[in-house]
Design a protein that fits this description.
With 640 residues, the chain is α+β, with helices and mostly antiparallel strands. It contains 20 helices and 23 strands. The protein has an 8-stranded antiparallel sheet with strand order 18-14-15-16-20-12-11-22, with no helix packed on it. Strands 1-2-4-3 form a 4-stranded antiparallel sheet, sandwiched between helices.
């Protein structure tokens, strides 16, 4: 893992160090940190690192998007840091959740439970999908030993899903992991299905939707037995309840008996209550959720598909798609298929169509070098490199991909494509649309048609519209024109946001600024304690500590002003913000006031870099020469 050692150490350093990390997990493309204090992470530096695509803060997680190498980077972090094995302690989760909104709590809960198992769930789903394809086409006989073995490989994980979710949910709820797995195992205990086939003692709720045949009793109480294989909601609710029971039991147990009596009483209490109450209620709740989802779909399948297809990539960016994943799995469990959430499928193909169009049209060698591997990654359903590296910075083309996804979603619905198994992404997703009971391939063909249309739309529209000379981010042309060497150049002049001595960027003590990875510019050693707006602009990012501010001028130039080196460690002391994030300000308006003398006395360098963070959109960034500069004198000239 030597290849990623420097990157791993830098990531840990700039998320606030090991001491700021509660826990770390990863999904297909992202490192998912739970941090004690997110304001200790230096997001701008992380975003500028080679090897980091971007940073997303959503759902109570600090997500560092890496791309296809995320597994190797994660393993390296585990090797070079003390984060390995660090699990939240009892009570941490509750304290942490107090700062989250209801939606963020839900997203954090679902992603925390599903992220660790997602890769294996996808892998076994792919095996099941390809098995369905082989048997449907007659390549492998459905009753052959080969088919049976492949079905075992494909079904095993999904069938015993409650056990695996028992592990991850126990971790999430700060419960003993093996106790959690034991509760999950009880739900899929083979004898239960045998009892369900036996004699019926009597029936409860006869004539209602909750009609239940009773095959056994526990202490004289009727047990409503259900099939919990592949279920999601019952085990999650059971372990939430179990975590409360376990803590109460642990407090009551003598220390010398705690190790075995705590799981003894926890299992003795939780499993019967799960079978008697939690399991049936959670199952009925799942059926209601499934019915509600189907009702929405049945109102207008095309509109439902269009909506999900259009916004799926936005959901993914903010982690909101985790709210839909359980609905997908629940539909498969309840109905045997999902027709609703699966309509997202075409959006990844629209995305790679746009990226291929940009690759074919651009003359920018750097953009070409980013686009090709992003396109290849996207073919297999991993689109974060496409989104964050190519289309999102060029907003028009991200919107084109969303429109292509909407068209694909509507087509998926109109062609009645259904997801019969949770499986592969991208081109590996086609076999998941095969009806495993009948071997019908119509769904797979429908998915191919919808994804091809999405891909073609993204490719053709981008190929027609794309021009390097007019990047999508330039919402309006810069108005200041000058004649130079017989050429017309568009430019914007950025004024000095503070007075002081000029310092060349390469002479700044912090390597991230000095190397220019965060953007070109210049630094100022301030002579007073005031930062003013360098142009008419909008405050896009204002750090809670007020030591740095991100601006975007009315003409599209993105500027970062970072007061001092490592001053984030002062946690806002000696800094006062005079504006709010999202506020539009005029040139010369005071943004931040700071006590330069006190900061120096605390041992910090107050040299202040002024950077153009979207440097790659411009032909050149020209800095002034000289030794001193005053507020609102010309500092940088940005040439498009």
């Amino acid at each position: 893992m030597k290849k990623y050692e420097a990157l791993a150490r830098d990531i840990v350093k700039h998320v606030g160090g090991e001491e700021n990390v509660i826990s770390l997990a990863h999904c297909i493309t992202r490192l998912r940190f739970k941090l004690k204090e997110e304001n200790k992470a230096d997001t701008d530096i992380l975003k500028g690192m080679d090897g980091v695509v971007t940073v997303i803060q959503s759902g109570g997680q600090y997500q560092v998007v890496i791309g296809n190498e995320v597994g190797d980077v994660y393993d390296t972090i585990m090797e070079v840091s003390g984060i390995k094995g660090s699990m939240p302690q009892a009570g941490d989760e509750e304290d942490e959740q107090k700062d989250l909104g209801l939606v963020d709590r839900f997203i954090d809960l679902i992603s925390g439970i599903f992220t660790p198992v997602l890769s294996v769930l996808v892998a076994t789903g792919m095996i099941k999908g390809f098995t369905a394809l082989l048997t449907a086409t007659g390549i492998v006989a459905a009753k052959s030993g080969t088919a049976q073995m492949l079905n075992i490989l494909g079904d095993m994980f999904f069938y015993f899903l409650p056990i695996f979710l028992g592990l991850t949910a126990a971790r999430k709820f700060n419960m003993n992991e093996f106790t959690g797995m034991a509760v999950g195992a009880s739900l899929v205990y083979p004898t239960v299905s045998a009892i369900m086939k036996g004699d019926t003692l009597y029936t409860l709720f006869d004539g209602s939707i909750f009609h239940s045949a009773i095959h056994m009793e526990f202490l004289g109480l009727p047990v409503i037995l259900m099939n919990y294989a592949s279920s999601v909601i019952p085990i999650v609710v059971a372990l939430w309840f179990g975590s409360k029971v376990e803590r109460l039991v642990a407090k009551a147990m003598p220390t010398m008996l705690k190790n075995f009596l705590t799981p003894f009483f926890t299992i003795l209490i939780v499993v019967p209550i799960t079978f008697l109450v939690i399991g049936p209620l959670a199952t009925w709740a799942g059926q209601i959720v499934g019915a509600a989802a189907m009702a929405i779909y049945n109102v207008s399948p095309a509109i439902a598909g269009l909506f999900i297809g259009a916004f799926w990539q936005v959901f993914v960016m903010f982690g909101l798609h985790w709210g839909l994943i359980p609905i997908m799995i629940n539909n498969i469990t309840v109905y045997g298929f999902d027709p609703l959430v699966v309509t997202y499928f075409g959006c990844s193909f629209a995305q790679i169509g746009v990226v291929l169009g940009i690759f074919l049209r651009t003359k920018d060698t750097k953009l070409k070098s980013i686009s090709l591997p992003a396109f290849i990654s996207g073919i297999f359903g991993v689109t974060e490199p496409c989104i964050y590296g190519v289309t999102l910075p060029r907003k028009k083309y991200f919107i084109i991909s969303c429109i292509g996804g909407a068209i694909g979603g509507a087509l998926m619905a109109l062609l009645s494509v259904k997801l019969f198994m949770f499986g592969g992404l991208g081109i590996f997703g086609y076999p998941t649309f095969i009806d495993t009971k009948t071997g019908d391939l119509a769904g797979m063909y429908g998915g191919m048609i919808a994804s091809a249309v999405s891909f073609a739309f993204g490719l053709i529209v981008t190929a027609v519209l794309y021009k390097d000379a007019k990047p999508a981010e330039a919402a309006e042309k810069l108005t200041v024109i000058e004649e130079k060497d017989g050429r017309t150049a568009e430019r914007e002049v950025i004024k000095a946001p503070l007075a002081g001595s000029l310092v060349a960027l390469e002479d700044v003590a912090d390597e991230a600024f000095a190397t220019g990875v965060l953007g070109k510019g210049i630094a100022i050693d301030p002579s007073d304690g005031r930062v003013v707006a360098p142009a008419d602009c909008t405050v896009m990012t204002l750090f809670p500590t007020a030591h740095a501010i991100g601006l975007i001028t009315d003409k599209g130039t993105e500027i970062l002003i970072h007061i001092g080196m490592d001053t984030v460690k002062l946690e806002g002391k000696h800094f006062t913000a005079r504006v709010k994030q999202g506020e539009h300000v005029k040139a010369g308006q005071t943004l931040i006031e700071f006590d330069a003398a006190a900061i120096r006395a605390a041992g910090y360098d107050v040299t202040t870099p002024v950077l153009v963070t979207n440097t790659d959109q411009y032909m050149d960034i020209v800095t002034v020469t000289g030794q001193e500069i005053k507020e609102e004198e010309n500092l940088l000239t940005v040439i498009a």
